[in-house]
Write a structure and sequence with these properties.
The chain has 402 residues and is an alpha/beta fold. The chain has two domains: 5-173 and 215-299, TIM Barrel (Alpha-Beta Barrel); 310-399, no CATH class. The chain is built from 15 helices and 18 strands. Bound molecules: zinc ion.
């Protein structure tokens, strides 16, 4: 069996490697497409493959609510159900749940009302693990507590609870893994009884069928916000756990991110991959993330901005809805090989946005996703050939020129 993560080259804290998953390899550093509800908004999975995406990340919270984890399992798991057929991640849902109004948190887990129909739900570390196994992504995130403010005490409380929940996530992950391993996992229809809440969050025991023959991997999530001492404490705690990799979570900005990542990635073991959660709307985040030791990234920003007409160029983002593009019969970016830039002009894109055509969102999303995916691919390439520093400097000075 291949190791889960292999490193080809190091430069300071930065690494070039490969994450080996049951659904294929991810060459890192890599940008992972945000497929929140098992789809990347406005893009088909074949468009995602064509633009060069290597992996997608779906959201456990959204998939529990709709269509439910049982249905995804029945469809063969996330990769098969969505026809992505490549490497997949799920985040634990914590980030979305803690953003909901009227969330009740206690030591056991989180109670909340569905944003769709107001139904009552409870998610615990155990049920989050069960849901992620049922969804069947290759890489799972531990269920973490996101602080409700940037206040130090709130952040510390959330971090300590995240650590307590991590112990339970690890125990539940290994319990499920052992059941499957002891069943030989050779029979796709083999079923096991999971104790406690099921992914559909009923309280009774429930029979589970695992459609996957191969192992799934668990990442611990490092919290601690913008406080370096908390980040260090959280990284140490996570580093000691029997997990396969690490997510670095919480809200932060490019300001101070290098110091925070130096602290965290200086502590985390070198031989396991690290995913920077929710970062990548701003290209600078990706350069800093990779330089300071992160291997994968995900963010809804690039496609969300695309749907609003805010498009990346090497000279910074432009708003294609602006009147000045009405008569510009040239590609959005001359040196971009995406489907949008190869075939269409800014004037045409401007027209599609002004008339609110669906194609506007499709073409814009193709370009923005391509731009970010290929920027990270180029980071990988330049780390390999030793020109990363020059690439970073020339890219950032041009992009943030204004
Ligand atoms: Zn393009």
């Amino acid at each position: 069996m291949k190791p889960f993560f292999t490193i080809e080259k190091r430069e300071g804290l930065a690494r070039v490697g490969v994450v080996h998953t049951p659904h294929g390899d991810i060459k890192t550093p890599a940008f992972v497409g945000a497929a929140t509800r098992a789809t990347v908004k406005a893009l088909t999975m074949s468009e995602m493959r064509d633009l060069g995406s290597q992996a997608i990340l779906a959201n456990t919270y959204h998939l529990i609510l709709r269509p439910g984890t049982d249905l995804i399992k029945e469809g063969g798991g996330l990769a098969e159900f969505s026809s992505w057929h490549g490497p997949t991640f799920t985040d634990s849902g914590g980030f979305q749940i803690f953003s909901l109004p009227n969330v009740k948190i206690n030591e056991n887990g989180v109670k909340f009302k569905s944003h769709i129909d107001g139904a009552n739900f409870e998610i615990t570390p155990e049920s989050s693990m069960q849901a992620q196994w049922a969804i069947g992504a290759d890489i799972h995130m531990a269920f973490d507590h996101l602080a409700k403010s940037e206040d130090y005490d709130d952040m510390k409380t959330a971090m300590l609870r995240t650590h307590a929940w991590l112990d339970r996530c690890v125990a539940e992950h290994h319990r499920i893994k052992n059941i499957i391993t002891s069943n030989g996992n050779s029979n796709p229809s083999s079923s096991v009884a999971l104790r406690g809440a099921s992914p559909s969050l009923a309280t009774s025991e429930k029979e589970f069928e695992f459609p996957h023959k191969e192992m799934q991997y668990l990442y611990a999530v490092v919290q601690g916000g913008t406080f370096n001492d908390l980040r260090a404490e959280s990284a140490k705690y996570c580093a000691d756990q029997p997990v396969d990799g690490f997510g670095i979570g919480g809200v932060f900005t490019a300001d101070g991110m290098d110091e925070m990542l130096k602290t965290v990635n200086g502590i985390l073991p070198e031989d396991k991959p690290r995913h920077l959660l929710g970062m990548g709307q701003e290209p600078i985040d990706l350069f800093i993330g990779a330089e300071f030791g992160c291997d994968t990234f995900d963010c809804v920003g690039p496609t969300r901005m695309a749907r609003n007409g805010s498009l990346y160029t090497l000279d910074g983002r432009i708003n294609i809805k602006n009147a000045k593009y009405t008569h510009e019969f040239s590609p959005l970016m001359e040196d971009c090989d995406c489907e949008c830039c190869k075939n269409y002009t800014k004037a045409y894109l401007h027209h599609l946005f002004k008339t609110d055509e669906i194609t506007a969102k499709v073409l814009a999303s193709i370009h923005n996703e391509y731009f970010i995916v290929h920027t990270v691919d180029k980071i990988r390439e330049t780390l390999l050939d030793g020109t990363f520093k020059e690439y970073k400097e020339s890219f950032l000075s041009r992009y943030y020129h204004n």
